[in-house]
Amino acid sequence: MHISSDDIRERLGEDLYTEKWKNRSALCVPLGQGNNFKAALLLVSNGPSSYLPDKDMRMVIDLADRVGVVVSHAELFATVERQAVTDPMTGLFNRRYFEEQLSKEIDRFQRFGHAFSFIIVDLDYLKKINDTKGHHVGDAAIIHTGNVVRRSVREIDTVGRFGGEEFVVLLPETDLKWAKMVAERICAAIREKPVEGWGPVTGSIGVATFPNDAEDKDRLFELADQALFLAKHRGRNQVCTVTEDLLPTLAQEGEEKIRQAMKQDMRMGPPEVKQLESVQADSLNGDGKFDVEVIKEKGILGLLAQLISIVEARSSYSSDRSTRAYGYANRIAQALRLGKDHTEVVSLGAVLCNLGKMAVPEEILKKPEPLSDEDLVYINQVPHTGAKFLEPSKILSKISPIVEAYQEHWDGSGYPNGIKGDVIPIEARIVALVDAYTAITSDRPYRPAYSHQDAIRIIQEGAGKEWDPRLVKIFVSLLQKDQQI
After folding, report:
1. Given a cut of 50, is residue 62 above it in pLDDT?
2. Does domain 317-484 have CATH number 2.40.37.10?
3. CA spacing 20 to 30 A to 80: which of 108, 194, 238, 251?
4. Domain 95-261 is of which CATH architecture?
5. Which one, of 235, 93, 123, lies nearest residue 190 by Cα?
6. 3-class SS letters over 349-387
7. pLDDT at residue 401 greater than cutoff 50
8. Cα separation of 418 and 424, whole Å?
């Protein structure tokens, strides 16, 4: 675009049109990529003509194109970098980023001796909202709570979402007195503004202070979480601190008694606890108890192995489902050149992804006809229930976000959060594909197993819709190699 001397004078006005602009013209070249306009390169000439020879003009346009690509790539990188540390639904920081900031705050304490506080906020009765009004209203309640928490703290404070209805706040250089005031303000703000489509909601809050309550990160998490449980146990919609509420209660009633009370939870809700108890009563060794020797020998993984076996039996899967899922996920992760530990996390995610089905009535899992809307309420809770079960474990917490997102679809049509594309964690995209293939090639209550070729066709047809198209190509290639052996 050519800008004449008269145009420059008109645009600048008499106040800005100084002597240096007289008899000058300019050439304006757009910067961007495709139709994505970002800025303009302005070339000001010393005379009334700003036209350049064709050779020079081609060089300028080539330069502008290159700069436009660089700008677009820089913005894309910033977007990806932001997505890597934020929760897609609320825009708050995710668990990984929050834990990094918490570690940095502990380092700051070791250098400068400044105490800090840690708050956990949990939305009350989210399952009731989801079951009664649907997930879109439940999501609105989560977003509402996240916004309330963010507006209730300082800019220097770090607010994150740990998944589901749980939020965390890091308060640098804040003692217990001020942290409790912030927590009370958050608690009041949550219940004051109703959620559209539902009405007023409430939250329960736990508060811990470093180093007064604990001198390491894991213990701080644990105590704050217990304080949160205590707030729920006392009736919800309130704040409990470690120093003023939890520790005196533990001293008076004993830790074991409190833990037993907390099992009635609170977070999982009565229907889920009831289902979990029914799973426990239906254990593998046939006498209503878990195989204690296996648990002693293999710890929590032994317990989970039994749970998964029970869940898969209730879901009418064959006994080799876990082995197949582990193997497929492992090979895809290796094809993507993920690290050894990363590959193991993905593989375990494929095995544990259906853990949430322990909260689904067996008659729904084995139903031969199409599921009703009421049945789908249970099914849609499977990812979240499984993630919440794994989340408290330090060993398995890395698998929790995979399980939370494995039913999300590439095009955004999945659940529970409706995220799409690269926003879905790569680990969850792998597990989604593996879980679908193992289901397609297994006998189900409502249909027989598909053949290998039909399964590949279904997977390919779903590329770009349900599943990451790049992963589909990799997986299909691996499956076809198996057929050639």
Report:
1. yes
2. no
3. 108
4. 2-Layer Sandwich (3.30)
5. 123
6. HHHHHHHHHHHCCHHHHCCCCCCCHHHHHHHHCHHHHHH
7. yes
8. 9
